[in-house]
């Protein structure tokens, strides 16, 4: 899950302004690929596992996150209508694993693992971003 700043995907808004329904939250809309490790009023930590060949249903990520890339695999991200918005195969160099990257909140999207291995990420979502 490589973060990007495309206006079609990454958005900036306050949590109270989030325009999508709770039914699109990653834990609700895509529970087979997202597992809650920890949550309190300030952070939520998700384990994200996408086996090769699988497609994660359309879902959102409401808060910005620090992504700890544990295992990399090429993947494509599409918006809620199926339009391609990111293809990791077009990146010049795959990220080192393990590594840490920043990710803004993500509008409705799906992710398809088109690589040869499982894509595994620990996502530390920051609910309280006032002052960041």
Report on the structure:
- This protein has 132 residues and is mostly beta strands.
- The protein has one domain: Jelly Rolls, CATH 2.60.120.
- The protein contains 1 helix and 9 strands; from the N terminus they run H-E-E-E-E-E-E-E-E-E.
- The strands form 2 sheets. It has a 5-stranded antiparallel beta sheet, with no helix packed on it. A 4-stranded antiparallel beta sheet has the order 3-8-5-6.
- Strand 1 and strand 2 (43-50) form a beta hairpin.
- The model is unreliable at 1-12 (pLDDT under 50).
Provide a short characterization of the protein structure.
The protein is built from 1 helix and 9 strands, in the order αβββββββββ. By secondary structure, the chain is mainly beta. The longest helix has 4 residues, at 26-29.
CATH topology, anyone? Jelly Rolls
What would CATH call the homologous superfamily? Jelly Rolls
Number of strands: 9
What general form does the structure show? globular
Which CATH architecture is right? Sandwich
The CATH class: Mainly Beta
Q: Fraction of residues in helices?
A: under 10%
- Helices, by number, come to 1
- The structural domain count equals 1
Uncertain residue ranges: 1-12
* Beta-strand percentage range: 35-45%
